[in-house]
Amino acid sequence: MTTSHLKLLADWLDPALLGLYILQVCRMVHPIKTKVAILIHTSKLLLLTFSLAHINRWAHLWPGHYYFPSGHMTFYVTVASSYFLLDRRSALFTIPLALLYGQLIVFLNFHTWLDIAGALILAIPVTLLFQRKSTKQEGANPTRTAPTPTSQA
Predict the structure, then answer these.
(1) How many alpha carbons lie under 13 Å from residue 76 in its C-beta half-sphere?
(2) In this structure, how many other beta carbons lie within 10 angstroms of the beta carbon of residue 143?
(3) How far is CA 33 from CA 30, 43, 141, in A?
(4) Do 66 and 57 form a contact (C-beta atoms < 8 A)?
(5) How many other β-carbons are positioned within 10 Å of the β-carbon of residue 123?
(6) CA–CA–CA angle 71, 10, 96 (5° rounding)
(7) Model's pTM, two decimal places?
(8) What does each of the 153 residues of the chain score in pLDDT, given as a tens digit?
(9) How far apart are CA 45 and CA 80, in angstroms?
(10) Does the N-terminal peptide bond of residue 147 adopt cis geometry, omega within 30 degrees of 0?
């Protein structure tokens, strides 16, 4: 596999995981209002983590390390964490893929291991706190369906 093939793989891994997450939300969650709410919530979460991951680039807080933390890995870990909170079985493929993805973007010299570690330290707690706050506001598990009314005889 050539370097250009690896770069193509690195470019498509984030959107592919996001697509799988959206499909899983659509498959598991009922009713439609809850699906839309979860997807809007995830969009807000991605915007938040993207902004936090790029503050150093915009404000030059750490000269010489403008790519800390990795925006690629922050995006991936945010979606993977959200996916995990929706369906615990997703860890069977998201964790190994995260390790491979981190190795890939280091190998391609997009980032260093320090950038990858920074992304993990940023994305996982922010996702967990954001999801926890959201669940408290909703007051229910979004994957559960509403009970169906029983008919009185």
Answers:
(1) 29
(2) 14
(3) 8, 15, 13
(4) yes
(5) 27
(6) 90
(7) 0.73
(8) 677 878 778 778 778 887 888 888 887 777 777 878 888 888 888 888 888 887 877 777 777 777 788 888 888 888 888 888 878 888 888 888 888 889 988 988 888 898 899 889 988 888 888 877 665 655 545 444 444 445 454
(9) 12
(10) no
Q: Where are the domains of the chain?
A: 3-138
In order, the DSSP letters of 96-121 are: HHHHHHHHHHHHTTS--HHHHHHHHH
**CA 17 → CA 72, 83, 150, distances in Å?**
12, 9, 40
Read off the tokens for 132.
Answer: 């926890």
